[in-house]
Structures are given as C-alpha cells and as structure tokens.
Specification:
GO terms for molecular function: glutamyl-tRNA reductase activity; NADP binding. Keywords: NADP, Oxidoreductase, Porphyrin biosynthesis. It holds the Pfam family GlutR_N. Belongs to the glutamyl-tRNA reductase family. By secondary structure, this protein is of the alpha/beta class. The protein folds into 3 domains: about 160 residues, Beta Polymerase, domain 2 (2-Layer Sandwich); about 140 residues, 3-Layer(aba) Sandwich (Rossmann fold); about 80 residues, no CATH class. The strands form 2 sheets. Strands 7-6-5-8-9-10 form a 6-stranded parallel beta sheet, with helices on both faces. Strands 2-3-1-4 form a 4-stranded antiparallel beta sheet, with helices on both faces. Helix 9 links the parallel strand 5 and strand 6. Helix 6 packs antiparallel against helix 7 and helix 14 runs antiparallel to helix 15. It is elongated, with a radius of gyration of 29 Å. The two termini are about 15 Å apart.
Length: about 425
C-alpha cells in the first residue's frame, strides 16, 4: 500500500470484532460510547496516527486506519474500552490493505450484517468519518473509500431487493413475540429504554401487534414522551419501574447502559414474564433465569432468527457483490492514479526547470526574444509531455511499476509525498 503514496504509514488495516466470533458479553467489553471514541481519536493523534475511522454498534466494533503495525490500532481500542489484548486476540480479525478495503465494502453494504441486508452500519460509518475529519484524522484515501462504500450501499438498496422487508433486530424481537405469545394484542407490554433500538422496536410493536397496552419508561422522561406522543402511548416515571414490571406480561429492555439495569430482585410478580434484552452490553442480569416465571431472550438469539424474508434476500447476494466489485474497481482505478501522481508531478517540475534554463539561454542570445510567446510555448510543451506520460501510465497493458522506475531513473526525479 505504500506504493500508492497515500500515507506516511505503509499499510491500511481493518481491525475489530463482530457477532461472528464474539458473544454479547465480549462485544460489550469492546463497545465505544461517544466519549470513548473522542478519547480514542485524541490518543491516535498523540501517537501520530495519520488517519482512521472508528465504528461501534451492538454487533461489531472496528477501526479502519493506517499504521506501521496493526497493534497500534489494537492498543487504541483496548486502552479506551474494557477489553484486553488477550480477549481481542481470541475473537478478533485483522485485514490488511486490499483485504481491509474489501471488508469495509462488505460491512457497509449489509453483506456482513448479522441480519443480511441490514444497512444500519452505513449511517455510523458516515458519522465516524465526519468525526474523524473534524479531528484532522481523515486523509484522502479513507475519505474516498468511505464515499465509495456509501455509493455501493445506495446502489444495492435501490438496485436489489436484499433489504426488502423489515431487517432490524427490533423487528426480529417483535416477530419473536408474535410467534411465541398468544393473544398479543391483549398483553401488557413494557418498553424500558427509548434510544434508537427502543424507538424502532416501539414502532414495530405498534405496527404489528395491534396492542394499545404499551407503556414506555426511560430515565429521561421527556425522550419517552416524544415517542409516546407520536403513537399515543402511556409513559411512566422511572421511579415506577418495579411496579410497571409487576403489571407486565412482556418486558423489552433497550437501555444501553454499561451494567445490568434489570435483575431478579426488581421482579416481584409471579405471573409469566417474557423479557427481551436488546442491549449491548447485556442490560438484564442472568440471575433473572432463577425465577420460574421468567423467560429471558437476548439480542444474539433474536438476530439468528431466519425466516422466509431472509432466505429470499440471499438470492440477491450475487447482484450485490457485482455492484461492490464495480464500485471497488473504480476506487482501485483512483488508487492507481494516486500511485503515479507523485512521479508525474516531479516530472512536470523537472521539465519546467529544463524549459526555464533554456529560456534563460535564448533570452541572452536573441535580441528580439519574445518573452510572452516563449513562455506560452514552453508551458504547452511541458503539459503535453506530462499528459503523454500520464496516459501511458494509465494504460492497463503496460507495467506501471516498471514504467515509473524507468521515468524516475531517466529524469533523475525526487518525488514529493504531498500529492
């Protein structure tokens, strides 16, 4: 990757962990909130990391960036989370250069999502790139790559049906309720937590259960009231949580806290209670399983539900992969251009020096020397020569590396890295 003259560091890496090998508890150890992300970026600058983006969702945490060695990025992650290097090594992955590029395309295009066709990661990737740019940690390579991934994602959404039907874990949770609970429309449902997943779940509950016994509780009551107003639902104070759980048949927890917000001591009712924990890290303590009347289902299980919709989506994977390949090829073409840009720039400067020297000689020799005309002619000739070399280097039939070395040798060029 150093041949492309895009970074002081030699290699581009994607390091991280996902639902594929890391369970919810481990993913929770490596989750990054907003403050942790900012701290990680600050540390990256202190460590002279030139460019990186950081993403953290309930299903994965990843860093894409340039480094001399991937451990530089791994250390950033472990220093700013509760995860350890030992834990990381057991469940993580490291992709390098083209492998890292391909990985970002698959992640951003929904092909690597826990639920096939779930595009929620792309908005996080956009936000992460914006945050990195604000912190002067986004070089042209990563910015161009993120934009290419966004382009591929948009095309896959519009040109295939890989995201047809409902996709998210919030829908999977409601689907699970509909499959396992009889007479859902008459059950008391309590939604605790009204962040992004909570809001999406609430919308799916209203849409699919035809239930008007849905109660919302959030630590910040006004957030719950905004959602409740939209769907004409009931909001209760956080102080009433234990009482409301006692009245509930179904409890959905999406609080996003770093420690469990629900445990067995808060559950006083003896009637059957289904608890769905949609949080990473887990927000429902495992000790609730000790209660005979409680059934606990976690996000990881819900995400594994495969239905007819998901099976149909698999049919569209080849089309999606073809789109990714097309956009990836365009990105690689741009990379090739970056590869020889420093040489062309150095060649142009060298030819301009030749022209300046010759103009000085002719100016002394000729009494009727036409300064303006000579400058124009020499400038045009320099431009035509450099354009000719550039077109040659773009030709796929030629060996770019050999040509670059020959040009540099013949013209004795010293390249600038700041292209």
């Amino acid at each position: 990757m150093h041949k492309y003259n895009i970074s002081r560091s030699k290699n581009f890496y994607a390091i991280g962990l996902s639902y594929k090998k890391a369970d919810a508890e481990i993913r929770g150890h490596f989750s990054l909130g907003d403050d942790a992300k900012k701290a990680l970026l600050e540390q990256a600058k202190e460590n002279h990391i030139e460019s990186l983006v950081v993403t953290s969702t309930c299903n994965r945490t990843e860093i894409y960036g340039f480094a001399e060695h991937p451990f530089q990025l791994i250390k950033l992650l472990c220093d700013n989370t509760n995860g350890t290097v030992d834990q990381f090594q057991k469940v993580a992955y490291v992709h390098k250069n083209k492998g890292a590029i391909n990985h970002m395309f698959r992640v951003g295009s929904g092909l690597d999502s826990q639920i096939l066709g779930d595009f929620e990661i792309i908005s996080q990737l956009k936000s992460s790139a914006i945050l990195s740019k604000k912190n002067d940690l986004l070089n042209p390579f990563i910015e161009r790559l993120v934009n290419a991934v966004i382009q591929a994602s948009k095309r896959i959404k519009t040109e295939t049906e890989i995201s047809s039907g409902a996709t998210s874990v919030s829908f999977a949770s409601v689907q699970y309720i509909l499959r396992t609970i009889k007479d859902v429309s008459n059950k008391n449902i309590l939604l605790f937590g009204t962040g992004k997943i909570g809001r999406n779940t609430c919308e799916n509950l209203v849409k699919h259960t035809k239930n008007d016994h849905i109660t919302l509780i959030n630590r910040t009551k006004d957030k719950a009231e905004k959602i409740a107003g939209k769907f004409n639902l009931v909001v209760k104070d956080y102080a009433n949580l234990q009482e409301e759980i006692s009245h509930s048949d179904i409890l959905i927890v999406a609080t996003g806290a770093h420690r469990p917000t629900i445990d067995k001591h808060i559950i006083q009712s003896k009637k059957p209670l289904l608890i769905l924990d949609l949080s990473i890290p887990k927000n429902v303590d495992e000790n609730v399983k000790e209660l005979d009347n409680v059934c606990l289902v976690h996000l990881d299980y819900l995400s594994q539900i495969t239905d007819e919709t998901l099976e149909k989506r698999k049919e569209h994977i080849p089309h999606a992969e073809a789109i990714i390949q097309e956009v990836n090829d365009e990105f690689n073409s741009w990379l090739e251009t970056r590869k020889f840009a420093p040489t062309i720039k150095a060649l142009k400067h060298k030819l301009a020096d030749f022209a300046t020297a010759e103009l000085d000689t002719q100016r002394k020799k000729l009494s009727d020397f036409n300064e303006q005309q000579a400058e124009l002619i020499s400038k045009n000739i320099v431009q035509k020569i450099t354009n000719h070399f550039a077109h040659h280097l773009k030709d796929d039939n030629s060996s770019t590396d050999d040509s670059l070395e020959l040009i540099k040798k013949v013209f004795q060029l010293e390249e600038s890295q700041n292209v």
